[in-house]
Amino acid sequence: MKAQDIQAIQLLLATPKKIAIIPHRNPDGDAMGSTLALYHFLIKNKHLPVVVSPNEFPDFLAWLPGSETVKIFEKDKANCTKILEEAELIFTLDFNALHRVGEMEHVLAQLTSPFIMIDHHEKPDDYAAYTYSDIGFGSTCEMVHNFISFLGKKFEIDKTIGTCIYTGILTDSGSFRFPKTTGTTHRIIADLIDLGVENTQIPTLLFDNSSYSSLQLLGRALQNMKILEAQKTAYITLTQAELDTFNFKKGDTEGIVNYGLSIKGIVFAAIFIENAAEKIIKISFRSQGNFDVNQFARDHFNGGGHRNAAGGKSEVSMKETLIKFEELVLELKI
Question: 32: how many CB neighbours lie within 10 A of its CB?
Answer without folding.
Answer: 28
